[in-house]
């Protein structure tokens, strides 16, 4: 019932939705990494780095948009950002996508890396994600790991508010939030949490009642969360979701246990991350899931049963998506993740692979795993100062009543010094079938070889 440990070829048809056209000398070209994806109605928008720069960011951020439920795609690159598109920055990073239903505007949040300071930008589209405006400045300073979300519940008193989370690297990764109430055209002041928390990789989600929850990875190896109940005017102190036990991926791969978060139609929050607590001695990670219905307390993490705890597989960097029309015991979940078939590998032998599982009962049980892409050698993906990079995050969008759509980087062997790594989507999406493999909460081991502190990760 489990995915085989050997590096079998992927068995999913994919459609390439973008490729790197740039030639600037700073970057490793024909590379695309670190996608985020969001869907609303029949529109799916993905954004990602194009032309990865070893020291941080990329030549630009690209987008791929489908207006017909993933049948066809239009690609392009954000204007007014880097020198490749008439903008002020040398490189751009950390793309995140949202849709504001009240103002009918798509938004892509990005981070200007080699700019004056390290600003957070927001690019806007009013034609369904097909063309984009020059960006507006969302936040200034030395920043990292921005993420954007909008309140799309018409009955919420904060319907139409959008929220961007980021951390301030010059202030110990202090967490900050900023709010827009006019479709991302302007943004309010930066606000700290009640306990002035710090961390990395926060992913805000909005409950139907308008409460914003923000799970993130703290500097002391915990997944924590904070909230706002007043439309972003203030942010409460953080609460514990769970401690993290984490196995660092082999082969010099750039990888960290950042959370991926989503919300269902009833307001239950879901957060997943890579964790080794279910494997004695922490030889590799599983993907684990915690849920909250109360905003302030979180259930103990359960193991997503992709394979046996005795397998050689190492799972990491998950991206969760939930059908926005479902909830609770009938919530339809899609979960995309990366893995090594053999955890104990080297830079020369590691096989980077992409998998997918689904649940139709809120994560109580899961489907057998599907191999979506790979295996890929690490030499097929660009290098950075922190190791080979496919992306610090991935995401999955599940259409209402339909299939799941992750957009993922898939590569083949380089041609000389030129890579062949571009963005792809499963053709027609991935079915959310669910299955009978039940999640587990039995903790076998809590050792960890996680890095001692967070590293700025442009």
**Share of residues in strands:** 35-45%
CATH class: Mainly Beta
- Based on secondary structure, the structural category is mainly beta
The biggest sheet amounts to:
5 strands, antiparallel
**Strand segment tally:** 31
| Count of distinct structural domains | 1
Low-confidence stretches: 1-7
Mean pLDDT: 95
Portion in helices: under 10%
Rg on CA atoms, Å:
20 Å
CATH architecture: 6 Propeller
SSE topology:
Elements: E1 14-18, E2 27-40, E3 43-53, E4 58-66, E5 74-77, E6 92-100, E7 105-112, E8 120-125, E9 136-139, E10 143-150, E11 162-168, E12 174-180, E13 199-200, E14 205-206, E15 212-218, E16 222-228, E17 239-243, E18 260-263, E19 269-275, E20 286-292, E21 302-303, E22 314-322, E23 333-340, E24 351-359, E25 365-366, E26 370-377, E27 397-398, E28 404-405, E29 408-415, E30 418-426, E31 437-438
Antiparallel strand pairs: 1-30, 2-3, 3-4, 4-5, 6-7, 7-8, 8-9, 10-11, 11-12, 13-15, 14-15, 15-16, 16-17, 18-19, 19-20, 20-21, 22-23, 23-24, 24-26, 25-31, 27-28, 29-30
Protein name: BNR repeat protein
InterPro entries: Sialidase_sf
What are its keywords?
globular, 4-stranded antiparallel sheet, 0% helix, Sialidase_sf, 5-stranded antiparallel sheet, BNR repeat protein, mainly beta, Neuraminidase, 458 residues
Question: How would you portray this structure in words?
Answer:
The chain has strands spanning 14-18, 27-40, 43-53, 58-66, 74-77, 92-100, 105-112, 120-125, 136-139, 143-150, 162-168, 174-180, 199-200, 205-206, 212-218, 222-228, 239-243, 260-263, 269-275, 286-292, 302-303, 314-322, 333-340, 351-359, 365-366, 370-377, 397-398, 404-405, 408-415, 418-426, 437-438. With 458 residues, the protein is an all-beta fold. It has one domain: 6 Propeller (Neuraminidase), CATH 2.120.10.10. Strand 11 and strand 12 form a beta hairpin. The two termini are 38 Å apart. This is BNR repeat protein. It comes from Actinocrispum wychmicini.
């Amino acid at each position: 019932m489990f995915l085989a440990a050997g590096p079998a070829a992927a068995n999913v048809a994919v459609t390439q939705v973008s490729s790197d056209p740039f030639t600037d000398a700073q970057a490793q070209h024909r590379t695309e990494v670190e996608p985020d994806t969001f869907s609303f109605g029949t529109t799916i928008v993905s954004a990602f780095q194009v032309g990865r720069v070893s020291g941080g960011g990329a030549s630009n951020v690209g987008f791929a948009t489908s207006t017909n439920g993933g049948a066809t795609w239009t690609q392009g690159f954000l204007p007014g950002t880097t020198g490749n598109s008439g903008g002020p920055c040398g490189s751009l990073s950390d793309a995140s996508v949202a849709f504001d239903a009240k103002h009918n505007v798509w938004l892509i949040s990005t981070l200007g890396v080699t700019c004056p300071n390290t600003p957070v930008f927001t690019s806007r589209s009013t034609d369904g994600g097909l063309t984009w405006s020059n960006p507006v400045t969302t936040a200034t300073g030395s920043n990292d790991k921005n993420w954007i979300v909008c309140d799309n519940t018409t009955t919420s008193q904060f319907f139409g508010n959008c929220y961007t989370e980021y951390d301030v690297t010059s202030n110990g990764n202090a967490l900050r939030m900023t709010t827009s109430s006019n479709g991302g055209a302007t943004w309010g002041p930066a606000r700290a949490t009640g306990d002035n928390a710090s961390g990395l990789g926060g992913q805000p989600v909005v409950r139907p009642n308008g409460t914003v929850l923000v799970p993130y990875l703290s500097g002391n190896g915990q997944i924590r969360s904070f909230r706002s109940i007043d439309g972003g005017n203030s942010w409460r102190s953080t609460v514990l979701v769970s401690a993290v036990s984490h196995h660092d991926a082999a082969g010099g791969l750039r990888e960290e246990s950042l959370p991926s978060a989503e919300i269902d139609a009833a307001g239950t929050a879901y957060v997943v991350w890579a964790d080794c607590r279910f494997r004695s001695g922490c030889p590799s990670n599983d993907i684990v899931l915690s849920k909250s219905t109360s905003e302030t307390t979180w259930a103990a993490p359960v193991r997503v049963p992709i394979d046996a705890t005795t397998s050689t597989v190492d799972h990491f960097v998950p991206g969760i998506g939930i059908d926005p029309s479902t909830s609770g015991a009938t919530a339809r979940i899609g979960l995309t993740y990366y893995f090594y078939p053999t955890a104990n590998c080297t830079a020369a032998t590691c096989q980077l692979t992409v998998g997918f599982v689904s649940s139709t009962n809120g994560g109580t049980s899961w489907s057998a795993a599907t191999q979506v892409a790979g295996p890929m050698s690490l030499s097929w993906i660009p290098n950075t100062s922190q190791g080979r990079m496919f992306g610090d995050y991935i995401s999955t969008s599940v259409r209402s009543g339909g299939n799941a759509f992750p957009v993922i980087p898939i590569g083949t062997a380089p041609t000389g010094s030129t890579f062949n790594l571009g963005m792809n989507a499963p053709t027609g999406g991935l079915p959310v079938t669910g299955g009978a493999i039940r999640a587990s909460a039995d903790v076998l081991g809590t050792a960890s070889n996680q890095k001692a502190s967070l590293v700025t990760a442009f």
